[in-house]
């Protein structure tokens, strides 16, 4: 089994969260906060920042660590570190080659209500995130291990 370390960032701006849509015909269709695998000895925060740029063209500031999540499929076990981020600038653009390779077809700012009827990752964005932000993410929280539904 392959092991992978990844970093992602939850960027909230004007009550909405930056999300990217991965859509592969006859495969999957889900929304996720931007993030991905760490390259070589890249620091986690740098990886999260790079992934936002690659997946949706925006520049963000990386803040505190909010969640540590593990997930697995038959071939890969992944540990992902989710940071809280702040928008620094740019325009949404998911036309980069890296985004196309990952079947990213759209990026958007979604409200909590917009999540209804969508498959959303990390799962904490549905409920826990909104409670945790009221406490200013007092400490990083381990979100547990989940089996991947799409891979």
From TrEMBL:
Ranges for domain Nudix hydrolase: 2-132
Gene3D superfamilies reported in the protein's UniProt record: Nucleoside Triphosphate Pyrophosphohydrolase
Cofactor: Mg(2+)
Protein name: NUDIX domain-containing protein
Coiled coil: none
InterPro entries, alphabetized: NUDIX_hydrolase-like_dom_sf, NUDIX_hydrolase_CS, NUDIX_hydrolase_dom
PANTHER family with a match to the protein in the record: GDP-MANNOSE MANNOSYL HYDROLASE
Organism the protein comes from: Chromobacterium vaccinii
Keyword entries, A-Z: Hydrolase, Magnesium
């Amino acid at each position: 089994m392959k092991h992978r370390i990844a970093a992602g960032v939850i960027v909230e701006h004007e009550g909405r969260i930056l999300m990217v849509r991965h859509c592969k015909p006859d495969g999957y269709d889900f929304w996720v906060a931007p993030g991905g695998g760490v390259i070589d000895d890249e620091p986690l925060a740098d990886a999260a920042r790079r992934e936002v740029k690659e997946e949706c063209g925006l520049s963000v500031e990386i803040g505190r660590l909010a969640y540590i999540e593990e997930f697995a499929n038959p071939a890969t076990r992944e540990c992902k570190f989710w940071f809280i981020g702040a928008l620094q600038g740019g325009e949404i653009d998911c036309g980069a080659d890296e985004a196309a390779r990952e079947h990213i077809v759209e990026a958007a700012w979604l409200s909590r209500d917009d999540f209804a009827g969508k498959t959303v990752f990390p799962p904490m964005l549905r409920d826990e995130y909104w409670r945790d932000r009221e406490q200013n993410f007092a400490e990083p929280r381990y979100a547990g291990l989940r089996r991947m539904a799409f891979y």
